[in-house]
Fold:
Amino acid sequence: MTRDPEAADIQVPRPADFAEFWAETMRLTTAHDPAPELRSRGDLSSDQVDVVELSYTSFQGVRVTSWYAAPAGPAPAGGWPVVLHIPGYISEPAIMKSWAARGYIAIDLAPRGKLRSNGVVNPGYPGLLTHNMVDRFSYDYRGFYADIVRALDVVAALPQVNSNRIGVWGSSQGGGLGLVAAAMRPELVRCVAAGAPYLCGIMESAKLTHSYPYEEITEYLRVHPSHEPLLAETASYFDVLNFAPQVQAPTLVYLGMEDDVCPPETGFAAFRLLPQTKQLLTYQRCAHHAGLHWVITEVEKFLAGHLEAV
Structure:
């Protein structure tokens, strides 16, 4: 049977207490003083770019650290615009010096399990997707989502930042979490670029592909078939399709039409649910990189168009 990703009908039930669950999650997160700390890394800096480690306290009191690169010298009146990048499932955050050299504060987030916090939280890759998935309250992704949203709060409050010019960008897990961040902090996210977004149609994706990370669900259910209703219930609280209607920022979505990691059916489903200004780019014969060679210039133009205008 020939697949038609654009026409696929993927729906995820939205729990009645979805909003309350996430409001409580953020209440528990903001109960902790974020205590942001900027630690200069002169060994990684240059005459053009200052590199800093940005640390803050998030959900469950976990201390997380991200890379922060900024143009050298004083910030302009009103502060620098921000490009906040979210890494993929197995990717470690990078230092985005080239973006800082263009006049942005460029932050590559490191949610729990990455960089400095992996000594406290380390579910493994593979392993994260199904770790504690039988219970939405203890599911590891609850902390991941909170870390990303908390980062927006922390970054927006920094004196050198223009809080009206924050853009979010990521691909795969970064794309999915970027949409979540835009949904949960619409007042802070000016624009979002999401490539091959992960965590869209989570349970359906496990049926559409045998690639990791979704294959983790299939493997788990081979051992614990009776847990499928529990996994599906938890997934509904974390599925990006249930966040997408809340996104208010202009959004760029880009997909590889032969993506065997994040099935394009799920990317189309997320795009349809976005209520605001949106643009979709699709790349034939492209897999999970989602046309990176061609699309990166489009991402750069998209972010610049929304963040560089005064």
Observations:
- The chain has a mean pLDDT of 94.
- The chain has one domain: 16-304.
- The beta strands are 37-40, 49-57, 63-71, 80-86, 105-108, 161-171, 189-195, 251-256, 278-283.
- The domain at 16-304 is CATH 3.40.50.1820 (Rossmann fold).
